[in-house]
Amino acid sequence: MPCSCARKAGILRSMRLYPVLLAFLLPCVGAHAAAPGPAEIVAHAPDSAWRTLSPDRLLLMTTADGRRIVIELASDFAPVHVANVVRLAQTHAWDGGAIIRVQDNYVVQWRVRDEKAPLPGGFVKNPPAEYDRPVAGIGFRPLGYPDSYAPQAGFAAGWPVGGDGTRVWPAQCYATVAVARDMPPDTGNGQELYAVNGEASRQLDRNLAVVGRVLVGMDQLGALPRGTGAMGFYTDARQDVAIRRVVLAADLPPAERPKIQAMRTESPSFDAYLAARAARTDPFFVHPAHGVALCNAPVPSREVR
């Protein structure tokens, strides 16, 4: 039932900023105290707002210079391409490979050790064009704001997606991992991957197979020196960043597996987070935007030590 601003503020204090109530309390909070920002909402989200990612959906990549990258695999969207990437990891094809391209505000790209080596058993040399999938069976949570690249935008299976009412496709936001390819009809087979390191890649939606997203270590990939060759490729092999190992977390001893959690996009905490991203009421902001782009509302994740 309706209640006064004073009563709402009292509830807010007593619940210690419990994020489930944010949407209910936000209209009156501004008159009494600054509403929690996105980071505070994430920090106070209850355990029920998080899901622990299965180790058979996590890749751990380490480079020769000590960088540690954890990637969540997008098996719901590109199962054949993802299976290829996993087979390459399990046969150590990535070990001794290299990061060969860093294009500013675009992508960081890496490859296996030897692209001409015999392919592992069960590897699909020419995968289908896994660029979108039916919305049926995966669900769709609308973003609530217009999108420049799709009739609809929102979240499916915890991933940012575009959609048209019948099909959905992963959005190529910052930290998205996808399969490099040549000209169509080639779809790429997973031997070369890239991670988006900027905000200029949504034109790639539905044009390349998305196989994952970087959850840990994107800052390290983004800090790599930019390539000086065409499209950001390194022109000297000595510039390449060597890959020491890529391994599926499920193939590691339990004590060595990274434990990663992602926020449930169907949770009240995510509702509050999304509302705060769209209308920042932090003291710094003079004029809230009252809108948010899909890629500017990344699904929160955290590593549990």
UniProtKB/TrEMBL annotation:
Superkingdom assignment: Bacteria
InterPro entries: Cyclophilin-like_dom_sf (IPR029000), Cyclophilin-type_PPIase_dom (IPR002130), E_coli_cyclophilin_A-like (IPR044665)
Pfam family, one: Pro_isomerase
EC number: 5.2.1.8
Keywords attached to this entry: Isomerase, Rotamase, Signal
Keyword Isomerase: yes
Signal peptide start-end: 1-33
Start and end residues of each PPIase cyclophilin-type domain: 60-230
UniProt protein name: peptidylprolyl isomerase
Organism: Novacetimonas pomaceti
